[in-house]
Structures are given as structure tokens and as C-alpha cells.
Amino acid sequence: MIRVGVVGAMGKMGQEVVKAVCDDKDLELVCAVDVNEIDSEVCPKSEVRVMGDLKSAILAHRPDVMVDFTQPKNVYENAIICLENGVRPVIGTTGLSDAQIEELNALSQAKGLGCLIAPNFSTGAILMMMFAKQAAKYFDNAEIIELHHNQKKDAPSGTAIKTALMMSESGKMTFESGNCPETETIQGSRGGKSYSDIHIHSVRMPGYIASQEVIFGASGQIMTIRHDSMDRQCYMAGVKLAIKYIAEHNDFIYGLEKIM
Ligand SMILES: NC(=O)c1ccc[n+]([C@@H]2O[C@H](COP(=O)([O-])OP(=O)(O)OC[C@H]3O[C@@H](n4cnc5c(N)ncnc54)[C@H](O)[C@@H]3O)[C@@H](O)[C@H]2O)c1
Fold it and tell me: pTM for this one?
């Protein structure tokens, strides 16, 4: 049995993870942490109650793996607490900077503890990114539109940034080939520029969970790769895969595609 803790356990993603862990015969939920609803029950199948402090929960319950779905401003500090206290983090929270990811990589290696960060745990979304990477070789122009619910705190999404990074690994310096010089009459109308000049446009609206389109263009043709998450259960197969992988490995992984 893999001993699992969840930080951000009372959030939208955290509650799904708690349920998925409680329903899996190979996983045991040993602790749950949140800054809200402290001491409440997390799942009818478990006696675990919400604790308010991550380090105390780790020391009291000794999880093998801690799954983090909290918020961008806390995730880095949480990961440090896990690694410093012998726990392998599985991080779904987005918003980590490149420098923070590198520092977590170094700390995970120094401690000899696995650490997995995935901006997206949905297997369909990972395939969308992999297909976009393949298509990037054949098109000189591409832009990304990501669409999320209006409670999402960071923009653009971690998935959009990761998609742009994977597309840039095709070796192309720019994906705005041949575009004429532009003036924005309304600031931000062309979105933000990411790796290899890929423009990312972020839409925030109730009704969406998480969607993304990668649009490729060339003379006389447009190709769109689109993925839609209809509910949060779509992430759970990926989260469980990540927990089971990292419990048995000591490497640092960025991106679920590395273990699919
Ligand atoms: N990787 C993925 O596949 C994926 C999918 C969906 C969402 N996300 C990301 O996951 C994060 C959480 O999303 P959500 O929709 O569940 O948000 P949410 O706001 O519903 O939940 C966050 C929870 O974390 C708790 N929290 C905040 N700071 C904390 C701290 N320091 N310690 C403990 N608990 C703390 C909050 O009280 C809340 O219950 C976001 O960054 C989101 O972008 C990632």
C-alpha cells in the first residue's frame, strides 16, 4: 500500500483526489491538509480529518507521497517542506516559475527522492500536447487559445506554457513567420508571447473547466488540435499513475508524458 497525503484537500481538485485515493486498492489516504475546513472529515471511506499545517501532518502520518493541488503562491514552499521531510511530492498546482522548477529538481536529486510536476494530469490533454509537438515540425505559424473557469488564479495556464515549450523543442525560433509588423490598439489583444514567439490567449468564463486549442496555419490550410475537460474526474487516472510511479522512483519528472 502506498501511503498518500493530499494538500489542498478541500479544494475542487483536492476533493476529487481524496475520493480517487480512497477508491483505489493500492493507495491509502493517511492525511489531508487544507487552510480551510480544518478538522472536518474528507471522505466517508476514511477516518482522516483535515489538518491545517503540512509539516505537522507529514510528521504525524508519514505519507510516502503528498499530492498538491493548492494555489500558485504556496506550492513551491509546500514542495520544499515535503522534500526536506522525506516525502515525494506529486504537484498539480500550476504557477511554478522555471527557476523554482529547477530548484526543486536540484533538491529532489540532493535528497534522492522522486518528485513529479505535471501542469496537466489529463491523458487526453497530454496527447494534445504531444500531437502539437509533432505538428510543430510541419507548420511555421501557430497560436494557442486556452479557456478555463473564471476562478482560475494564474494566466496563462501551465498547460499552455508547457505546450509552447514542447512545440519550441521542434527547433523553430519563431511561429509567427511572415507576420507583418503589428500595433495593438487595445493592449493585450494579441495575447502573451511564449517560447518561440508562440502567442497564448487566455479566456476565463463560467461554464468551462479546462479547454485548449492549438491552431496551426500555413498557406491555404488551418489545422486545429483541441481538447476539452468536461469534469475533474478526467485528471484522476493521471494523478494515480503519477502517485504509483513516483512512489517507486527517485527521479525528477516534469510532465506526465514522461511516464505515459
Ligand atoms: N495539473 C492539473 O492537471 C490541474 C488540473 C486542474 C487544476 N490544476 C491546478 O490546481 C490548483 C488547484 O486548483 P483547484 O481548482 O482545486 O483550486 P481550489 O481553489 O478549488 O482549491 C485549492 C485548495 O487549496 C487550499 N489551500 C490554499 N493554500 C493552501 C496551503 N498553503 N496549504 C493547504 N491548503 C491550501 C484552499 O483552501 C483550497 O481548498 C490550481 O493551481 C489549478 O490551476 C491543475
Answer: 0.86
Determine whether 249 is an active site residue: no
Expressed in angstroms and rounded, the spacing between residue 112 Cα and the centre of ligand 1 is 27
Q: Go through 228-248 and write b for each residue having 16 or more CB atoms within 10 A of its CB, e for each that does not.
A: bbeebebbbebbbbbbbbbbe
Class of domain 123-229: alpha beta
> Could you confirm whether 172 is annotated as catalytic?
no
Q: What fold, for 2-117+233-258? A: Rossmann fold (3.40.50)
**Residue 238 Cα: closest atom of ligand 1:** 3
What pLDDT shows up at residue 201?
A: 98
Domain coordinates in residue numbering, the chain:
2-117+233-258, 123-229
95 near 158, Cβ under 8 Å?
yes
Judge residue 39's burial from the number of C-beta atoms within 10 Å of its C-beta, 0-12 exposed, 13-18 middle, 19 or more buried. exposed
In tens, the pLDDT along 78-104 reads: 999 999 999 999 999 999 999 999 999
Question: What are the cell numbers at 103?
Answer: 530548484
Q: Atom 43 in ligand 1: which residue has the minimum CA distance?
A: 94
